[in-house]
C-alpha cells in the first residue's frame, strides 16, 4: 500500500548525524527537526488554533486514549474527524495510548491480547487491542498513527523488559495487518522501538520493527525515570540503525538540551508536555536558561522575559508583570507563559534546521548550550 505520508532528507551535517527533512502529509508540509506541541485532548492547553498557526506549528500531537474516552470516537466520526472537530487544518499525530496506560498502571491490566483498563474519568472498563488502537486512530483521522506498545518504567529487570519488548513487536505486527486491512493510505502508521536501557534488547526491537517496514519509526521507553546518559545511550543504540529515508521520532522528550543531543544523533521529531506544563507552573525557557517567574527577584524587573526572544510576550510584557499575573492566578498568565515556551521550542527547531543546512549544527549546539546553561 502506497502511503500518502512521505519523507525526504534535504540536508545532513557532515560532522554528525543531524539532518533536516521534509515530512509531507495530507494536511501540509512539516519541516524537521520538529517539536510537536502536545494537544492531548484535542487542545494545546491555553492556546487557540489561530495562535498555534501564528507560532508556526505545522503538526500537533493528540492522544487516542483520551479522545476515545472523551468526547468519544463516535462524536469525532460524526464531526468528520479531529481536524474538523477542533478547527485545525494542519497535521496531527496521535499516540495510541500505550504511555497513558503505563502512567495509569494501577487502572490497567496487560495481557498478550491487549490492555484492559478502567477509565480514570468514570471508572468504566474498556479493552484496547492492537487492532482497536488502529481503528480508533483511523476514526480520529490522524495523519500519523502509532502502534500500540507497552512502555516499561525505570528501573526494570532485564527479563521484564525483554518480555515487554517482544510483546510490543507482536502487537506491531497486528497493528500493521489492521492498517493494511483498513487500507488507510492517507494515514501513516509508525512502529515503536522498546527495550529500556538494554542495548541488545534495543537492537532486537529495531530488527523486529524494521522487518515490518513501517512508513516511520519511533524510539519509545525513554524519559520514564532514567538519567540523561541512559536516554542518550538508548538513542545512540537505536537512531543510526533506523532507515535513512524514513522519519525518526523520539517520544516524550522535550528539554531543549535533550532535543539537541538527539538531533545530533539523527532524530527528526519530538513531543513533550513539559514546555506547556512548565509554563502553567511559572517555569519559562529563555536563551539564558530556565527561570522561575514567581521568584521575588522579578518583582521589580521591568525588562523583557528574554531580550533575545522575538515572541509577542517578550516584545510586550515585563518579567515583573508576568510575575504579577502568575501570583494573582490570572488566566492570562497561563496563556502568555505557554505562548512564550511554545515559541521558544518552535524557534529552536527552526534554528536547528538552519544550522544543519549550513553544516554548522555542532557549533550551534555548543553556542546554545553555553548560554542556556549559564
Architecture overview:
There is one protein chain. Helix content is 43%, strand content 19%. It is of the alpha/beta class and 374 residues long. The protein has two domains: 6-271, Alpha-Beta Barrel (TIM Barrel); 273-374, no CATH class. The strands form four sheets. An eight-stranded parallel beta sheet has the order 4-14-13-12-11-10-6-5. Helix 9 links the parallel strand 12 and strand 13 (248-250). Helix 8 packs parallel to helix 9, helix 11 packs antiparallel against helix 14 (331-357) and helix 14 packs antiparallel against helix 15. The termini are far apart. The relative contact order is 0.13. The mean pLDDT is 96.
Helices and strands in order:
Elements (H helix, E strand, L loop, with lengths): L5 E7 L6 E7 L2 E5 L1 E3 L12 H7 L3 E5 H6 L3 H7 L2 H5 L4 E5 L2 H6 L4 E4 L2 E5 L6 E4 L1 H11 L3 E3 L11 H25 L5 E6 L5 H12 L5 E4 L8 H11 L9 E3 L5 H9 L4 E3 L2 H7 L2 E4 L2 E4 L19 H5 L2 H9 L3 H27 L3 H12 L2
Parallel strand pairs: 4-14, 5-6, 6-10, 10-11, 11-12, 12-13, 13-14
Antiparallel strand pairs: 1-2, 2-3, 7-8, 8-9, 15-16
Helix pairs in contact: 6-7, 7-8, 8-9, 10-15, 11-14, 13-14, 14-15
